Structures are given as C-alpha cells and as structure tokens.
C-alpha cells in the first residue's frame, strides 16, 4: 500500500512510471510538476499499475551546442536567431548562448557493438526526465581539455 498523501506532500522526492513502459513514456517527475498537476498524475496512476521511485537527482555537467560553421568559422545560418531555432533554443538567447556552456543533467551509458564495448554516450536534459519528449538529447562522449583562454581541445583514443 502506498500513501498518496505522503507522495503528494513531497513531490520533488518522487517519480512515477508505468510498470511495463519504455522510452520514458508515461514517466512523471514530481519536481517538474506543479503541486496540482502532480496530485492529478498520482490520482490517475492509482487506477493502473505504476511504479513509485525515489527521485535520484542526476549530476549536472557543462555542455555546449555544436554549431555548424564554414571554413572561416562563419555560421552556416542566415542569423543567430535561425541557428537558435534549428537547435531548439529560444531566439532571445541570442548568439552568446550558442557558444556558451550550460548545465545539463546527465546520464552516462555504455555503447556496445557486436557484443563488445565500443564507447560511451550521454543522455542529457534540463528537466527531471531525461528523454527526447522532455527536451532531452543523446550526446557522443568526447575526451577533451578545456582552457577558458585557449578553448576546447578534443583528444582521441581507440578502444581495444
């Protein structure tokens, strides 16, 4: 038995998901909901088979968006606003946001190919649910050095 009043009183500590779901479909993180919407989600879930889990905050990591440029480092878009729209950003964030580091919640995963370890990937998002429908993205993982004065240097290495 689960006391729904306890879950409703501490929404930021809980997440609910369908028992047999996949791809984060039907998952609701209390921290992303108003108290009223969280209560409604819990009431709907109470009539079906849902799992209740403690919400485990993910670690924030600085990320940047890779912006397509030509050989002279000119944007391949007619304006920063066009680039922002293409990258699902708000136009008012402007050109500065296109090259800045932002905090994203991150989950690191292992990538296997043909039964062998082939690298890592990161799922990242800025909400409690890290999935595409919630604005999340899947990123390649690059080993890099960053110096605020010199910029970003990407290192490469083969996996054996």
3D structure, described in words:
This protein has 160 residues and is of the alpha+beta class. Helix content is 19%, strand content 33%.
- Give the structural class: alpha+beta
What spatial order of strands do you see in the largest sheet?
4-5-6-7
Q: Total number of β-strand segments?
A: 9
Which term fits the overall shape? Answer: elongated
* β-sheet strand percentage: 25-35%
How do the SSEs run, as a string of H and E? HEEHEEHHEEEEE
Helical segment tally?
Answer: 4
Averaged pLDDT, please?
77
Query: Which residues sit in consecutive blocks of at least 5 with pLDDT less than 50?
Result: none
* Main β-sheet description: 4 strands, antiparallel
Helix content: 10-25%
Q: How far is the first residue's CA from the last residue's CA? A: 49 Å
Please state the CA-atom Rg, rounded to the nearest Å: 20 Å
Task: Describe the structure in brief.
By secondary structure, the protein is α+β, with helices and mostly antiparallel strands.
Layout of secondary structure:
Blueprint: H1 4-9, E1 14-18, E2 28-29, H2 35-45, E3 50-54, E4 59-63, H3 80-86, H4 94-99, E5 102-113, E6 116-125, E7 137-140, E8 143-147, E9 151-155
Antiparallel strand pairs: 1-2, 1-3, 4-5, 5-6, 6-7, 8-9
